[in-house]
Amino acid sequence: MQLVFKRSFVITILSLFVVTALVGGSKISLGFGSISQLQRNFIDGDLTATDIIDVHNWATGAEARLKLFFINVEGYLLMQQGDIIGITENGLPVYKDDVAQIISGMVGIGFSTKAATATKISFTMGTLLGLNVSPGFGLEFWMGSEDNVYEKERKEEFLKDISLAYRVRVDINFFSRFSLGLYYQVPSSGFSVNNYAWDALVPDWNQGRLGTAFITRVF
Fold first, then answer.
1. Contact of 76 with 98, CB cutoff 8 Å
2. Domain limits of the chain?
3. How confident is the model at residue 176 (pLDDT cuts 50, 70, 90)?
4. For residues 120 and 169, is the Cβ–Cβ distance under 8 A?
5. Smaller CB count within 10 Å for the chain: N or C?
6. Looking at the DSSP assignment, which residues form a beta bridge with residue 80?
7. Which residue, 69, 99, 59, is CA-closest to 82?
8. 104 and 67 in contact (C-beta within 8 Å)?
9. How many CA atoms lie within 13 A of 63 on its CB side?
10. What's the CA gap between 108 and 185, in Å, rounded?
């Protein structure tokens, strides 16, 4: 019974977004902008006001959005320094997990619809991805989760283990070309080609991230 409910819920939400997007009319637009994301779980009971205003808990980057008729194609990248856990005898920083720089983000496709005057709500499905850079400029590329690291020897399994993620955002549009948005991103519970189960579609709320974006529409 629970499985049937989850399946029906997912199908209903997607159907509503498709229908409202189609009714909303066909448009082609392209936009770029800046993005900031809180690197702590917003719904975590341990999160405090101090954690929210601490700039060290936020990562910044850039986002691009392309709308082709009723389909949104979007992606963003964030850049953040790795955690320093010590200093060597030569005064050089020692990074946690030997990661000096973290580049992470999400790519996906979705739909959007007008929720109120100058307000739009969007739903996107895609995958998380990232690049961990070591102090010696070693690169480690991952998709879906940080555990799914690309290796030439396991390329096929790497692709099959790329898991699904979701993002819901609300944008307020003003002066025709600008929008200020708030979004919540959350990975699935590991839904992928190798984990093709309805239960895996359930969001992993413990890994959710809150963010904001300011986008300028080029056309």
1. no
2. 2-217
3. confident
4. no
5. N
6. 102
7. 99
8. no
9. 29
10. 12
- Copy the structure tokens of residue 6: 């989850």
Select from 212, 75, 77, 200 the least CA-distant residue to 141.
Answer: 77
Spatial contact of 141 and 133, defined as CB atoms under 8 Å apart: no
The pair of structure tokens assigned to 134 is 């070591």
* Structure token digits, residue 21: 């997007």
Tokens 């690291």 belong to residue: 149
For tokens 């400029």, the residue is 137
Residues belonging to the chain: 219
Q: Does 26 score more than 60 pLDDT?
A: no
Residue 137 identity: F
Phi, psi of 181, rounded to the nearest 5 degrees: -130, 160
pLDDT in tens, 144-175: 999 999 999 999 999 999 999 999 999 999 98
- What CATH class is the domain 2-217? mainly beta
